[in-house]
Specification:
Blueprint (H helix, E strand, L loop, with lengths): L1 H20 L10 H18 L2 H11 L8 H35 L4 H87 L1
Helix pairs in contact: 2-4, 3-4, 3-5, 4-5
């Protein structure tokens, strides 16, 4: 379901761009080096933090392929997705700074600095497009975490209710024993009085 939504979103964006600018002008939105730079930054940060496998597992968990997943795994997957999104955003800022330096060094050549300016604008576009794609994954993981946290609370409430019923039953038993013991003492006193008489 998630992949269908993602593919549909990409198709809608491409159709709108094609209608607005024409099919031939869509190539100006493609810059493979910038996209690869953001991917390399995000993947390297994940590998350095040891969350590479958790990032891959996040998609399986969000798509429902791994239903028997604990709270710890879901939290690690959510952290991996958030870390990748932050790394891509920071990577885009890093790329923008590099492009500004390039533009400053070639300000006299109009054609070249215009190309660098277009690349500068594509970096945040790619970064936030990746963040948009990861938002449903992150949302599903957080909902799963909430559900996992609610299950122990429900179990503890059930246990507390069960223990409360046991205590009530014990209290009733003690009350019966006390009442039975009081009646027994009264009978003994009456029997002793009858013997004396």
């Amino acid at each position: 379901m998630y992949m269908m939504i993602a593919i549909g979103l990409v198709i809608v964006v491409l159709i709108v761009a094609a209608v607005s600018w024409g099919l031939g002008n869509l190539t100006m939105l493609l810059d493979t080096p910038s996209f690869l730079m953001l991917l390399i930054i995000g993947i390297s940060v994940l590998l350095a933090s040891g969350l590479g496998k958790d990032f891959l597992a996040a998609f399986c968990i969000a798509l429902g392929r791994e239903k028997q997943t604990g709270l710890r795994e879901r939290k690690r997957a959510a952290e991996a997705v958030e870390l990748f999104a932050r790394a891509v955003r920071y990577g885009s800022v890093f790329g923008i700074a590099l492009q500004f330096i390039c533009i400053h060094s070639i300000m006299g050549e109009e054609g070249k600095w215009m190309v660098h300016l277009s690349v500068l604008l594509l970096l945040p576009l790619y970064a936030y497009a990746m963040n948009l794609m990861l938002l449903p994954i992150k949302s599903r993981l957080e909902l799963g975490i909430i559900e996992c946290m609610q299950e122990p609370e429900e179990d503890s409430m059930a246990e507390a209710a069960w223990h409360g019923r046991e205590e009530e039953a014990k209290g009733r038993r003690t009350q019966r024993e006390v009442s039975d013991g009081g009646e027994g003492e009264e009978k003994e006193q009456r029997a002793a009085e009858e013997k004396e008489n």
